[in-house]
Amino acid sequence: MTNPEEAQLIRRCLEKDRSAWQTLVERHHRPLYSIAHRILLNPEDAEDAVQDAWVRITRSLPRFDGRASFRTWATRIVLHRSLTKARSMHPTMPVDDLLENLAAPASGDWNPSPDRLDLDRALSDLSPDERAAVILHYGEGYTFKEIAELLEIPQRTAANRAYRGFRRLQKAMRGVSVENDR
Protein backbone atom coordinates (compact mmCIF):
# COMPACT_ATOMS: atom_id res chain seq x y z
CA MET A 1 0.00 0.00 0.00
CA THR A 2 1.32 3.44 -0.89
CA ASN A 3 2.11 5.67 2.08
CA PRO A 4 0.30 9.04 2.33
CA GLU A 5 3.40 11.11 1.51
CA GLU A 6 4.06 9.13 -1.65
CA ALA A 7 0.37 9.20 -2.61
CA GLN A 8 0.50 13.01 -2.38
CA LEU A 9 3.66 13.03 -4.51
CA ILE A 10 1.94 10.89 -7.14
CA ARG A 11 -1.12 13.18 -7.15
CA ARG A 12 1.19 16.13 -7.76
CA CYS A 13 2.90 14.22 -10.59
CA LEU A 14 -0.48 13.61 -12.20
CA GLU A 15 -1.06 17.38 -12.01
CA LYS A 16 2.17 17.82 -14.04
CA ASP A 17 4.25 19.06 -11.10
CA ARG A 18 7.83 18.64 -12.37
CA SER A 19 9.42 18.95 -8.92
CA ALA A 20 7.21 16.12 -7.63
CA TRP A 21 8.26 13.96 -10.57
CA GLN A 22 11.92 14.78 -9.95
CA THR A 23 11.53 13.81 -6.29
CA LEU A 24 9.91 10.51 -7.26
CA VAL A 25 12.69 9.71 -9.73
CA GLU A 26 15.45 10.69 -7.28
CA ARG A 27 13.88 8.51 -4.61
CA HIS A 28 13.53 5.38 -6.75
CA HIS A 29 16.00 5.52 -9.65
CA ARG A 30 19.04 4.07 -7.87
CA PRO A 31 17.30 0.98 -6.38
CA LEU A 32 15.57 0.32 -9.72
CA TYR A 33 18.87 0.65 -11.57
CA SER A 34 20.54 -1.69 -9.09
CA ILE A 35 17.99 -4.43 -9.79
CA ALA A 36 18.23 -3.96 -13.56
CA HIS A 37 22.03 -3.99 -13.44
CA ARG A 38 22.18 -7.22 -11.47
CA ILE A 39 19.78 -8.89 -13.89
CA LEU A 40 21.43 -7.61 -17.06
CA LEU A 41 25.03 -7.50 -15.77
CA ASN A 42 25.82 -4.54 -18.00
CA PRO A 43 25.55 -0.85 -17.01
CA GLU A 44 24.42 0.36 -20.43
CA ASP A 45 21.74 -2.32 -20.78
CA ALA A 46 20.58 -1.65 -17.22
CA GLU A 47 20.31 2.08 -17.88
CA ASP A 48 18.35 1.41 -21.08
CA ALA A 49 15.96 -0.89 -19.22
CA VAL A 50 15.44 1.64 -16.43
CA GLN A 51 14.87 4.48 -18.91
CA ASP A 52 12.32 2.32 -20.75
CA ALA A 53 10.71 1.58 -17.40
CA TRP A 54 10.50 5.29 -16.49
CA VAL A 55 8.76 5.97 -19.80
CA ARG A 56 6.27 3.19 -19.04
CA ILE A 57 5.85 4.43 -15.46
CA THR A 58 5.13 7.94 -16.76
CA ARG A 59 2.50 6.66 -19.19
CA SER A 60 0.95 4.28 -16.67
CA LEU A 61 0.93 6.53 -13.61
CA PRO A 62 -2.73 7.57 -14.14
CA ARG A 63 -3.65 3.87 -13.79
CA PHE A 64 -1.57 3.34 -10.62
CA ASP A 65 -4.16 2.33 -8.02
CA GLY A 66 -2.03 2.41 -4.85
CA ARG A 67 -2.86 -1.17 -3.79
CA ALA A 68 0.86 -1.92 -3.87
CA SER A 69 3.54 0.56 -2.88
CA PHE A 70 4.93 2.70 -5.67
CA ARG A 71 8.30 0.97 -5.15
CA THR A 72 6.75 -2.47 -5.70
CA TRP A 73 4.82 -1.27 -8.76
CA ALA A 74 7.88 0.42 -10.28
CA THR A 75 10.05 -2.61 -9.48
CA ARG A 76 7.61 -4.83 -11.36
CA ILE A 77 7.92 -2.61 -14.42
CA VAL A 78 11.74 -2.57 -14.24
CA LEU A 79 11.80 -6.34 -13.79
CA HIS A 80 9.66 -6.89 -16.87
CA ARG A 81 11.80 -4.53 -18.96
CA SER A 82 15.02 -6.13 -17.68
CA LEU A 83 13.83 -9.70 -18.13
CA THR A 84 12.57 -8.97 -21.64
CA LYS A 85 15.96 -7.51 -22.52
CA ALA A 86 17.84 -10.38 -20.82
CA ARG A 87 15.79 -13.04 -22.61
CA SER A 88 16.63 -11.45 -25.95
CA MET A 89 20.37 -11.70 -25.24
CA HIS A 90 22.54 -14.81 -25.31
CA PRO A 91 24.33 -14.72 -21.96
CA THR A 92 26.23 -17.26 -20.58
CA MET A 93 33.12 -17.82 -3.86
CA PRO A 94 32.11 -18.83 -0.76
CA VAL A 95 28.42 -18.71 0.24
CA ASP A 96 28.86 -15.83 2.73
CA ASP A 97 30.70 -13.79 0.10
CA LEU A 98 28.07 -14.73 -2.46
CA LEU A 99 25.30 -13.28 -0.29
CA GLU A 100 27.37 -10.18 0.46
CA ASN A 101 28.10 -9.63 -3.24
CA LEU A 102 24.47 -10.11 -4.19
CA ALA A 103 23.57 -7.26 -1.85
CA ALA A 104 26.40 -5.02 -3.11
CA PRO A 105 25.24 -1.86 -4.87
CA ALA A 106 25.47 -1.79 -8.64
CA SER A 107 26.32 1.72 -9.80
CA GLY A 108 28.25 3.25 -12.63
CA ASP A 109 31.10 4.44 -10.39
CA TRP A 110 31.40 1.13 -8.57
CA ASN A 111 34.71 -0.74 -8.89
CA PRO A 112 34.00 -4.49 -8.64
CA SER A 113 36.34 -6.91 -6.89
CA PRO A 114 37.55 -10.12 -8.57
CA ASP A 115 35.01 -12.06 -6.47
CA ARG A 116 32.25 -9.78 -7.74
CA LEU A 117 33.36 -10.35 -11.33
CA ASP A 118 33.23 -14.12 -10.72
CA LEU A 119 29.74 -13.70 -9.28
CA ASP A 120 28.65 -11.68 -12.32
CA ARG A 121 29.93 -14.46 -14.60
CA ALA A 122 28.11 -17.07 -12.51
CA LEU A 123 24.93 -14.97 -12.56
CA SER A 124 25.16 -14.70 -16.34
CA ASP A 125 24.95 -18.51 -16.54
CA LEU A 126 21.55 -18.52 -14.80
CA SER A 127 18.40 -18.13 -16.81
CA PRO A 128 16.99 -14.59 -16.60
CA ASP A 129 14.09 -15.92 -14.50
CA GLU A 130 16.40 -17.65 -12.00
CA ARG A 131 18.65 -14.58 -11.90
CA ALA A 132 15.71 -12.32 -11.09
CA ALA A 133 14.46 -14.59 -8.29
CA VAL A 134 17.94 -14.95 -6.77
CA ILE A 135 18.62 -11.21 -6.90
CA LEU A 136 15.23 -10.26 -5.50
CA HIS A 137 15.33 -12.78 -2.65
CA TYR A 138 18.98 -12.98 -1.63
CA GLY A 139 20.10 -9.54 -2.81
CA GLU A 140 17.09 -7.32 -2.19
CA GLY A 141 15.41 -9.23 0.64
CA TYR A 142 12.02 -9.73 -0.99
CA THR A 143 9.92 -12.62 0.31
CA PHE A 144 8.85 -15.40 -2.05
CA LYS A 145 5.31 -14.07 -1.87
CA GLU A 146 6.50 -10.61 -2.95
CA ILE A 147 8.62 -12.10 -5.73
CA ALA A 148 5.62 -14.09 -6.94
CA GLU A 149 3.58 -10.88 -7.09
CA LEU A 150 6.34 -8.93 -8.82
CA LEU A 151 6.96 -11.60 -11.45
CA GLU A 152 3.30 -12.64 -11.67
CA ILE A 153 4.10 -16.30 -11.00
CA PRO A 154 3.02 -18.77 -8.29
CA GLN A 155 4.82 -18.42 -4.95
CA ARG A 156 6.19 -21.96 -5.16
CA THR A 157 7.67 -21.19 -8.59
CA ALA A 158 9.37 -18.09 -7.16
CA ALA A 159 10.85 -20.13 -4.31
CA ASN A 160 11.98 -22.89 -6.67
CA ARG A 161 13.67 -20.44 -9.04
CA ALA A 162 15.47 -18.69 -6.18
CA TYR A 163 16.58 -21.94 -4.55
CA ARG A 164 17.65 -23.59 -7.82
CA GLY A 165 19.47 -20.44 -8.98
CA PHE A 166 21.24 -19.99 -5.66
CA ARG A 167 22.31 -23.64 -5.65
CA ARG A 168 23.74 -23.24 -9.16
CA LEU A 169 25.56 -20.08 -8.05
CA GLN A 170 27.10 -21.92 -5.11
CA LYS A 171 28.35 -24.66 -7.39
CA ALA A 172 29.67 -22.20 -9.96
CA MET A 173 31.50 -20.18 -7.32
CA ARG A 174 33.12 -23.38 -6.04
CA GLY A 175 34.17 -24.30 -9.59
CA VAL A 176 31.76 -27.22 -9.92
CA SER A 177 30.09 -27.73 -13.29
CA VAL A 178 26.39 -26.93 -13.22
CA GLU A 179 25.48 -27.96 -16.76
CA ASN A 180 23.34 -30.85 -15.49
CA ASP A 181 21.22 -28.52 -13.35
CA ARG A 182 19.72 -26.74 -16.33
Word description of this protein:
With 182 residues, the protein is mainly α. The chain has two domains: 1-89, Orthogonal Bundle (Rna Polymerase Sigma Factor, Chain: A), CATH 1.10.1740; 92-182, Arc Repressor Mutant, subunit A (Orthogonal Bundle). Helices cover 71% and strands 0% of the residues. It has helices at residues 4-14, 18-40, 43-60, 70-88, 95-102, 114-124, 128-139, 144-151, 155-173. Helix 2 (18-40) packs across helix 7 (128-139), helix 7 (128-139) crosses helix 9 (155-173) and helix 8 (144-151) packs across helix 9 (155-173). The longest helix has 23 residues, at 18-40.
A few lines on this structure:
This protein has 182 residues and is an all-alpha fold. Helix content is 71%, strand content 0%.
Q: If you average the pLDDT, what whole number results?
A: 82
Instruction: Say what oligomer this is.
Output: single chain
Count of discrete domains:
2
Rounded to an integer, what's the Rg over CA atoms?
A: 17 Å
Helix segment count?
9
Uncertain runs: 90-95, 108-114, 176-182
Determine and state the CATH class of the largest domain. Answer: Mainly Alpha
Counting helices, strands and paired strands, the structural category is mainly alpha
Quote the beta fraction.
under 5%
Instruction: Report the principal-axis shape.
Output: globular
How many individual β-strands? 0
The second-level CATH architecture of the largest domain is Orthogonal Bundle
**CATH-assigned homologous superfamily of the largest domain:** Winged helix-like DNA-binding domain superfamily/Winged helix DNA-binding domain
How much helix is in the residues?
over 70%
Distance between the termini: 37 Å
CATH topology of the largest domain: Arc Repressor Mutant, subunit A
Largest sheet: none
What's the helix-strand series? HHHHHHHHH
